[in-house]
Specification:
binds nicotinamide-adenine-dinucleotide, 339 residues, binds thymidine-5'-diphospho-beta-D-xylose, Rossmann fold, 12 helices, two-stranded parallel ribbon, alpha/beta
């Protein structure tokens, strides 16, 4: 089986490349990535020597490049991770999110229509459902929850989901969609909550918690997400949406305090800063469908996953030190300088 993994030089895509190479050694994995600020070939260095792996540089929103890719590779499956993925950046500059996340998805779907495909899988997010109130812990997102977006990022991801469903119905593209909660683990880009807090704490820098830190996220260890997508592309039913989440709800403040405790650092590093605009209150996934229909269950509990993740950042300083020494400094100053 030939599988194109778009966005495979990013956080979850790269973890998925490694998951597939380890669990399906006869498959061919082709990573297609534009190497934006979030893409990193260093992340794929252990795959590069594998004869079943290939990297192709390219942009999902370039029709010529995508059609050429399909002509050369003739894939059986395409798993689309490629996206602009950071909510804060989408609030500063929505347009790039529309181009990559919506137009890019539509071009991939056009290529599937033109060249044929056994399966197209869209990696979506729980953010397409909007948020849940903090005082209703009984409520969860199911696959039939209405789409109701808050940020340009989530609006672009919801738009892409609607396109996938439209192409599936109109052109019979054999597509599936998964909507996952917040991931964490190795190779997570330093701009996101967990790596940002680990790295700042290691430098004894302030930990910028938005608002009061009461917002809740439902954390899933990245390998559990990869296992779920692997099951969906092989056994999932065409036309279906699958929610993925592990019932690991935590407030942001709880997450930050846990990281400080593991690192033996003082809670006085916590600094409450101006809230994110339109900040979603709570995300919480009901994963009953994928558990029931595909037999998926998450293996890693948050307490273990966060220990493993902190250990990974301690053992892989070179990976993140290189990232934070470049353009990231300007990003950090712009986002947090006067917050
Ligand atoms: P990431 O930002 O770490 O990686 C994105 C990757 O896509 C990078 O390698 C980047 O170079 C590549 N890319 C960006 N624009 C591209 C383009 N035009 N053409 C080709 N490649 C391009 O993102 P991530 O956190 O790994 O997220 C991957 C996917 O999973 C995204 O679609 C995201 O919406 C979704 N998702 C993420 C989370 C999470 O917690 N991180 C949760 C649920 C869903
Ligand atoms: O410095 C920070 N301080 C802070 O309090 C940062 C970066 C974040 N936060 C808060 C905002 C959120 O409530 O932490 C929470 C998590 O923030 P992010 O790591 O930016 O993730 P989130 O906005 O929840 O979105 C993530 O999960 C869903 C991914 O980035 C998305 O790609 C995915 O779709």
């Amino acid at each position: 089986m030939k599988i194109i993994v778009t966005g495979g030089a990013g956080f979850i895509g790269a973890n998925f490349v490694y998951y597939e190479l380890a669990n399906h050694p006869d498959d061919e994995i082709i990573c297609y990535d534009k190497l934006t600020y979030a893409g990193n070939l260093e992340t794929l260095k252990f795959a590069e020597t594998n004869p079943h792996f290939q990297f192709v540089y390219g942009d999902i929103s370039s029709r010529d490049e995508v059609y050429k890719l399909f002509e050369i590779v003739a894939p059986d499956i395409i798993v689309n991770f490629a996206a602009e993925s950071h909510v804060d950046r989408s609030i500063e500059d929505p347009e790039l999110f529309l181009r990559t996340n919506i137009i890019g998805t539509s071009i991939l779907l056009d290529a599937c229509k033109k060249y044929g495909i056994k399966r197209y899988h869209q990696v979506s997010t729980d953010e397409v459902y909007g948020d849940l109130p903090l005082d209703r812990p009984d409520l969860f997102f199911t696959e039939t929850t209405n789409l109701h977006t808050s940020s340009p990022y989530s609006a672009s991801k919801a738009s892409a989901d609607l396109l996938v469903q439209a192409y599936q119905r109109t052109y019979k593209i054999p597509a599936t969609i998964s909507r996952c909660s917040n991931n964490y683990g190795p190779y997570h880009f330093p701009e996101k909550l967990i790596p940002l807090m680990i790295i700042n704490a290691l430098h004894d820098k302030n930990l910028p918690v938005y608002g009061t830190g009461a917002n809740v996220r439902d954390w899933l260890y990245v390998e559990d997400h990869c296992a779920a997508i692997d099951l969906i592309i092989r056994n999932g039913k065409v036309g279906e949406v699958y929610n993925i989440g592990g019932h690991n709800e935590k407030t942001n403040l709880e997450v930050v305090k846990t990281i400080l405790k593991i690192l033996g650092k003082s809670e006085s590093l916590i600094q409450f800063v101006t809230d994110r605009k339109g900040h979603d209150q709570r995300y919480a996934i009901d994963p009953a469908k994928i558990e029931r229909e595909l037999g998926w269950t998450p293996k890693t509990k948050f307490d273990d996953g966060i220990q493993k993740t902190v250990a990974w950042y301690l053992e892989n300083r070179a990976w993140w030190e290189k990232i934070i020494s470049g353009e990231y400094q300007n990003y950090y100053a712009k986002m947090y300088g006067n917050r």
